[in-house]
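Hey, resending since the last one bounced:
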Amino acid sequence: MEKPRILMISARADHGGGQKYLLELVRAINEQVDVFIAAPDEAPYGPKFRELSKDFFALPHRAFRLGVLIRLLIWARRHRIEIIHSHGRGAGYYSRLLYFFGF
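The structure tokens again:
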């Protein structure tokens, strides 16, 4: 049986409680699901997210861009993402718009 495929989205990867929570969540569920992460690729959490995820999509730090949304949509479809968990308002923009494309 194939594991569920979950996309975790964060618009931040710098110091903060939300990013720490996301890292702990990914570590806790990594054995039960295939975790994909979309987040900024910057220290201290970006490299850790990249290491723990099945695949990683680099997002701009705290910025929404339509072109990035389109690339994220294509990337998520290619990886057959089933569930999206976004953490924070910036990440929520991406996840709410992906909803209109069937996620």
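Helices lie at 17-29, 45-52, 66-78, 89-99.

Sorry for the duplicate.
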